[in-house]
Amino acid sequence: MRMEKKNMMKRMYLVFVSLMLLISFTGCGEGGTGKKLALAVVTGVHSNSYELPLNAETISSMLYDVCYSYGRVSFVNVDGNPYMDFETSIPEPSVSGLSDQKKKDLAEGYTAQLKETLHSLAARTEETDPLKAIRIAAQSLRAADPAVYSRTMLILDSGIPTAGCMNAQNGLLYAGNIDEIVDKLREMKEIPDLTDMDVIWSFCGEAAPPQQPLSEKDKDKLRSIWEAILKAGGARSVTFTDDSISHTPYTGLPKVSIVDTEVFEIIVDKPKKQEQVIRTYTLDEAHVRFVGDQAIFTDEQKARASIQEVADMLNAHPENTVYIVGTTASGNVDFCDQLSRKRAEVVRDVLIEMGISADRMQAVGLGFRDPWHLTDIDAEGNWIEKNAACNRKVMIVDQSSEEASLLGL
User: Fold this and answer.
1) Is 33 exposed, middle or buried (0-12, 13-18, 19+ CB in 10 A)?
2) Confidence of residue 319 (pLDDT cuts 50, 70, 90)
3) Residue closest to 163 by CA, chosen among 267, 261, 264, 262
4) Partners of 74 in the beta sheet?
């Protein structure tokens, strides 16, 4: 009886904390902070996991809040090589003076669209690496100005890692204490930067067949481990919810290894020494300027001088491979994709002339769909030239970097 009362008090506390968090993000004239909400959703759409109950209170409330505040949202999918699957900003109405009911109707419509997008997500590779997914989501949130946005990460995953430096296949909960786990991750620089972010986690420890279920004791320890990691990263708050699971396992997705719950402990594996990741190098219009709508340098001598710096950097790291990523200002999707790719290829060709092996470089064109794109057209359809200029660029991105994982390549 005492244990039941303790569990009931714990659930009531979690519900209270969750409600306080949700209320604090409502904003926009409803007694909140007045800030927009930047929301990064980490989704565990993989084998050995239950289908996401998209109408669960936490999911519905957080998606609605980001829509009502005209915030920004990103979806990061958890698999063996997590990736940014979707990112967008919620547009403000072009008509001013809308009634509160109309604003709510619009928010509900956008929320339904976001749920459809969530429903379409799926793992691409075998295994799961939630820690890497959290790092990618945190990077997305760091791009949101804290003076404008409240930044929240919503994790919808079992939290059982079977890939990456945290590996549950060798045991996860019994050998080594939590402080040792955090210290090892900190030493390896694997702790995500969550400064000034709130983290809400649903379905932690909820594994689907063929994975054997975790005991309540193991679920509690798993949550304690993740809470310690998230707080070590500077999270402002960490809340685990008790949303009901769907009881329908995902099928037809890449394999995820079964973890032996009898010897379930966290082993932090230090990865083999790898070549140092090259910092992302941006050739913007101040360095390499192109003729409008063409892949021709306006000043070839100046462009080659800037590209030579990239060649020197690549020569200093002969084992690294990179993406040469072209981007543009907003426009026609097909034209901008082709133009940005041609510009990336021109830069790659110059690097080849400078002695860099073609095998080390992959030219890609993302048009105006790159994860760093700045809004360059205002509500009236006019150019925001300062942002448009920033969007016209060619980036050199190490294929092993976190930035590369945002490209979805």
Assistant:
1) middle
2) confident
3) 267
4) 40, 87
Q: What is the pLDDT of residues 300-318, one digit of tens each?
A: 999 999 999 999 989 988 8
Residue 360 is given by DSSP the state: G
Task: Please give the pLDDT value at position 348.
Answer: 95
Structure tokens at 256: 């995820």
How far apart, in whole angstroms, are the C-alpha atoms of residue 372 and residue 322?
Answer: 17
Alpha-carbon gap, residue 342 to 280, rounded angstroms: 20
pTM: 0.61
β strands within 135-236, DSSP E: 149-156, 166-167, 198-202
Report the C-alpha gap between 227 and 113 in whole angstroms: 31
Q: How far apart are the first and last CA of the chain?
A: 54
- Percent of the chain residues past pLDDT 70, beyond the cut: 86
Range from 125-129, 184-188, 208-212, 261-265 carrying the lowest mean pLDDT = 261-265
Contacts of 406 (CB under 8 A, 6+ apart): 83, 84, 136, 139, 140, 371
In angstroms, the Cα distances linking 360 to 293, 319, 324, 348 are 27, 8, 10, 10
CA distance 331 to 28: 31
Amino acid at 313: M
Q: What is the pLDDT of residue 23?
A: 36
Which amino acid, 218?
Answer: D
Q: Own/partner pairs for 174-182, CB < 8 Å, 24+ apart?
A: 174/263, 174/264, 174/265, 175/265, 175/266, 175/267, 176/265, 176/266, 176/267, 178/224, 178/225, 178/228, 179/228, 181/225, 181/228, 181/229, 181/266, 181/268, 182/228, 182/229, 182/232
Q: Give per-residue pLDDT as tens, 137-190.
A: 998 899 889 999 999 999 999 999 988 878 765 444 444 578 888 888 888 888
Residues 6+ apart with CB under 8 A from 65: 22, 25, 26, 27, 37, 39, 71
Q: Which of 207, 318, 309 is CA-nearest to residue 264?
A: 207
Q: How large is the C-alpha radius of gyration of the chain?
A: 23
Q: How does strand 36-43 pair with strand 72-77?
A: parallel
